[in-house]
Amino acid sequence: VPKEKKAPLKKKSRKDALKTFFSAKISRTDDPESVIKKDEFYELFARFCRDHRIAPVPERKTVTVALKTQFALTEKSVDGTPCWTGMRLK
After folding, report:
1. Cβ atoms of 63 and 2 closer than 8 Å
2. CA pair distance 21, 41, nearest whole angstrom
């Protein structure tokens, strides 16, 4: 009986990592007062990447561009701290 060949495990791409993180940890909301600090968001994402062995962790600028273009997020400053609006942690 011939052995079946298993497909090699695909390494998650960095784009997939952001989508996976976003769907697992973030809830979108229509409330513009619902915000997450940009630094907090990136630190949570970096920890998620390390926990799921996604390397290298995408740079902040890459994540920022992806959040603006792919997820259509907006940003604002709250008490001088840059934040993403319209979302909250699950």
Report:
1. no
2. 10
Which residues, 6 or more positions from 83, have their beta carbon under 8 angstroms from its beta carbon? Answer: 35, 36, 37, 38, 75, 76, 77
**Token pair recorded at residue 33:** 């007062």
The two structure tokens encoding residue 38: 């940009």
Please state whether 68 falls in left (phi above 0), alpha (psi between -120 and 50) or beta.
alpha
User: Running along the chain, 90 residues long, what does each successive block of 10 average in pLDDT?
Assistant: 49 70 91 91 93 84 91 92 93
17 and 46 in contact (C-beta within 8 Å)?
A: no
| Virtual torsion, Cα 22, 43, 47, 15, nearest 10 deg | 40
